[in-house]
Amino acid sequence: RFRKAKLHVEKAIKEKKIFAVQGPYPVIRRLLRARGWVERKLPCKQLKQQPGDQRKQPERTTSGGSDEQGETVLNPPWPHDNESKGDSNEDVKEGSEQCNEDSDDIHELMSVLVQDQVPNFLWTIRLSSIDQNLLPRIEVVNRYPRLYALCTKVGAQRPQGGGTGGGEVQKGMTGFSKQEGLCQSLRNLPWFQQVDFNTFFPRCYRLGIEDEQEAFIEDFRLTAARSLLKLALQKVGDSPVGTEQRPKSDKVPGDHVAHPMPSTAGPCSALYPQLLEEALEVCEQHLGVLAHQDIDRNTPSPCRTCIDWDRFLQEYYHVAHEGTRLVLSREQREQCQHLLQRLEEQLPQLCIEGNLNVWILKPSAKSRGRGKAGGRMGHTHPRGAGIPPSLCCPGIVCATRLEEVLKQAQNCTSLSARGCEWVVQKYVERPLTVFNTKFDIRQWFVVTDWKPLTVWFYRESYLRFCSRPFSLCHLEPARHLCNVSVQKRYKTLHPDPRVPPEKIWSNKQFQAHLAQLGRADAWQQVMVPGMKTAILSALRCARDQVGSRKGSFELFGADFLIGEDFRPWLLEINSCPTMSPSSAVTRRLCANVQRDTLRLVLDRKDNPACSIGAFELLYREAAVASCLPVGLKLLVTGSSLKKA
């Protein structure tokens, strides 16, 4: 057996087939061994890094904050806080599989024989846990450094005031304090291609930056005014009606609802006769700004008019959340219709706005939807007086009131020594649902080079369902967060037999459902092209920020939500997406994408005509010939002047 192992090792060293796997990737390990590769096993202690070590690492990888194995740049690699204890234990359990999954003597023996060899291939959860002296010597690595511009929601912590000027990083801040996240990098898209990011990425703001917080407040007010016009048009005959009412039969203990304000008027009362006129005036002024009519004259912002916005919003809450009726004339109704039509031509995201002005808050320091607000209600904090219970603890949460969002940002800043930063993003209030259940799509893609940019799109994907029917009257995570790690905490009270028990569908099952709806063309003609455009746009914006490394590659997982018009909306991009199967569908698809990734990055080098499975080339940038430096061969030619 020793002779056989030695011969195998000698052949693997000669053919440069030594690999290392860090993390729960039995499929990768099995496929590489089948190709004749020999594993150099990394010490198991490298899988777990102490929180204090993170500040000493020169490289950090980031992830978006969904069902992934990577972590955000502000989060310790292995969280030990009580609120994430369950997920932390799960991560450690997954990571320990490397030490236990294969104790076959021959592989153990070969691993010992190659302990002094530098791996030719590395598949790891995070680069920061790999010896930084060893890493540059590895030929092929499955991770890129410095992905904060692509895979984080806000980037790393910034100085107060949001300065972006050059200069050295301030003392006490992270090495990425001058960098941007996806939220910011997409704003540079017009410099790279003529695509409006508002057509595929819901608008978002970083609450830790004063200018962006002010921009959010203005956006919230304008959205409330537009929502009021929509509410005014919801009429049955000549009888005005309010917004969607909370179903009495669907009450769930612990639900986070839209916190109605106390009202002295019943839902059938007709109040606020001036409210609609103010909303019409604001929307008209906003259209003028969108048409650049404010350039040559001193026109105030629509949100800096004489309107008392505190009163306006409180009255809007009564109408939107309590059903207080609006009385409008035929002329006002026509004005509302005309204004909304004009706004729709100017605002690509009007189609995702509903009537309740819902926004979603996401902390930059959490992933997998973790945090008490993601699944536990009723907890309070000593400094959280006056804040809804679900807003007292860090986690993804939906909010319908401006004061809720601002208190959350203020509360987090005052409580967190690390300066936890929050993103507030417009919630898609009009998503496409399947059997009245919200879902999102996990779409894989691989980047094999950044210079020139080379991207491969995976033709297979999967849907993740929520546990309870979609409703904007209930804002608890079971109805609105599709993360598998969130939904596994909930039990479906009255399950729809048509919804898959494991809450997972493949894209082919989804296509069959679309065919039953008479929209079989929507997947190939609307959704897939939209997802490709969003992915490529995000990559182009982030390319100059990413640490490009020849020979490396990375498998990403993008999360998309589908609107009622079948258009995809990019939510976030995750580095190192989870490969741990949560269902029969993901067990098959995760194995397939790992197999095809190895075909793409390994087999294709030796045989360009080999099968790469479900991958297709999305984009390959034309190589640009490098120009010779000025002055390399600088000559002056001519003849001397002769004196007369």
UniProtKB/TrEMBL annotation:
InterPro entries: ATP_grasp_subdomain_1, TTL/TTLL_fam, TTLL_monoglycylase. Its main location: cytoplasm. It catalyses: L-glutamyl-[protein] + glycine + ATP = glycyl-L-glutamyl-[protein] + ADP + phosphate + H(+). One of its GO terms (biological process) is cilium assembly. Residues 80-96 have a biased composition (Basic and acidic residues). Pfam families: TTL (PF03133). One of its GO terms (cellular component) is microtubule cytoskeleton. PROSITE patterns: TTL. It is found in: Cytoplasm, Cytoskeleton, Flagellum axoneme. It comes from the Eukaryota. Residues 43-101 are annotated as: Disordered. Keywords: ATP-binding, Cell projection, Cilium, Coiled coil, Cytoplasm, Cytoskeleton, Flagellum, Ligase, Nucleotide-binding. Residues 326-353 form a coiled coil. SUPFAM superfamilies: Glutathione synthetase ATP-binding domain-like (SSF56059). GO terms for molecular function: ATP binding; protein-glycine ligase activity, initiating. This is TTLL3 monoglycylase. The lineage of its organism: Eukaryota, Metazoa, Chordata, Craniata, Vertebrata.
